[in-house]
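Dear Dr. H.,

I hope your travels went smoothly. While you were away I took the liberty of generating a structure for the chain from your last submission, since the lab meeting agenda had it listed for discussion. I wanted you to have the full record in hand beforehand rather than looking at slides cold. The sequence, exactly as received, is reproduced here:
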Amino acid sequence: MSGRARPRSRRRRRAFAVLAVVLSLLAADQLVLAFVLADGWIGGLRVAPFDPPLFSAVQFEAVARLREELRVGVPPERPIRFDAALGWGHAPSSGSGEDRFDELGARIAAQPSQRVRRGGAKRILVFGCSFSYGTELGATESWPAQLGALRPELEIVNLAVPGYGLDQALLRWRRDGRELDADEVWLGFLPAAASRNVNRYRPALSHWSVTVAFKPRFVLDADGGLVLVPHPAATLTELLRLCTDARAFVDAVGESDAFVARARPAYLPSGAHWTHHLALGRIAWTLVDRLGPDAQTLLADEQGEVFAVTRAIAHTMAREVEAKGQRFVLLVLPGRDDLQRADAEGTAPWQALASAWREDGIELVDASAALRAQGAPAADALWAPGGHYSAAGNAAVARALATR
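The corresponding predicted structure, in token form, is as follows:
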């Protein structure tokens, strides 16, 4: 009898020991939850759940500014506006200083453009993001402006908008460029920005973003064609609601934004998922949200959504432009990180995509060689403080394009 009792006693002691450890860990977890994660921040880092979906003091301030603009109107000197079709954009005939826009909403360099081309000029419409717009530079220092100075017979209409994905560029061409009198349409592509094409809420992609904005995107149908998922907010009032109401936010973009979808419980209202009641669960979702593949890895994955959607957008835009009888040119404008990654891996992360675009019959110009001839990526003189091309970097691109 005593021999059988001893094994049972040992099992009970082990069970009590395991239970004690579990309870101690749970108690420690709850102490961390109560005293470390109570306000949802650790050392300036937002911890899941992200309710509301804002990640920095700057973004909270941006929401407050948008609320004030909704109340009193947008200041005349602020050219960037909410756009229910594109997400954001430049108001025609607006701006001041180095950021002025003509009646087309194009950045003014030497002179404004009008709906009818300048007499005798060959007109080129440029779409893209900040690397085509010329962010961090004066209006005459962007590569479109410098190209126009090198080739006076060209009228370069700079319709690029900072922060745009290729999806927004295509939509802008359809709305603002399709009916313009032009000979060619150029689309600038920053490889590191390809992930924007599967994103709908800017801060979900870039937690450091100084803007709080939503955008449309495309998904692919069974035949590989583009299907538009429109902007989730028809008005600025609705945009502000999505920024401050976690449930409305997840209902609007929880499935269609790739970066929200991969960590969906991190964006649910506080307490809506069982993991929200554990410090370990909250930390785990924070890491899942932050530690996904980087932009270059996503772009290089030929079976991935970023690759497929990005390829389809440029292919579609090329077909639509050429159907208008205009020439389409796709410009690869690599950033410093893109070139450094190419050096580290021995091949450009966008190489497979560039090959696919050429197979699609797209005329493609890669500015890598022109930048490398000037010492990129190491040459600091080619880069502005925020990572865009400097005036010298833009000049290298302009000179290469001027000889085509």
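Two observations you may find useful: The radius of gyration is 25 Å. Residues 40-404 form a domain with the Rossmann fold fold (CATH 3.40.50.1110).

With kind regards,
E. W.
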